[in-house]
Design a protein that fits this description.
This protein is α/β, with parallel strands linked by helices. 47% of the residues lie in helices and 15% in strands. The protein contains 6 helices and 4 strands. It is globular.
Length: 136
């Protein structure tokens, strides 16, 4: 049976607390008609580590298997740069695990016919902002 996992991370740079992130993740999982399996939660200080080196991120990668789906509130929860984001997605891709960015799914759903390339643009802008603030 395929499982639906969540991944949240505390961070004062994120707009939403981890509990709000989890509520939105669980809402989307329910909208898909799936049962929520487990949430993996890392603390704020883990944000500069690649997801596979974070305590709960590593547990998530170990727990997820082919056919499972990982729901993450945003790219910022999963990574700190475009390169790290690509690597994180690759970790899951190797295991044939899908990754859903909840904030992007909700935004595209609100704007029916939204452009999927908006994700790339939004991630690029986020990385630019971090670089300008000296966080990269």
């Amino acid at each position: 049976m395929n499982q639906a996992f969540g991944y949240t991370r505390d961070d004062d740079r994120l707009e939403l607390t981890s509990s709000v992130q989890l509520t939105r993740i669980m809402g989307l999982v329910a909208a898909y008609g799936w049962d929520f399996t487990e949430n993996f939660h890392d603390q704020a200080e883990a944000w500069l580590e690649p997801v596979h080196q974070r305590p709960e991120g590593a547990r998530l990668i170990e727990a997820a298997s082919q056919g499972d789906t990982v729901f993450v509130y945003s790219a910022a929860c999963l990574s700190y740069s475009a390169t790290d984001f690509a690597r994180a997605v690759e970790w899951f891709h190797r295991k044939r695990v899908s990754v859903v960015l909840v904030s992007e799914t909700l935004r595209l759903a609100k704007n029916a016919g939204g452009n999927p390339l908006d994700l790339t643009k939004d991630l690029a802008l986020e990385i630019f902002d971090r670089a300008m603030e000296g966080r990269l």
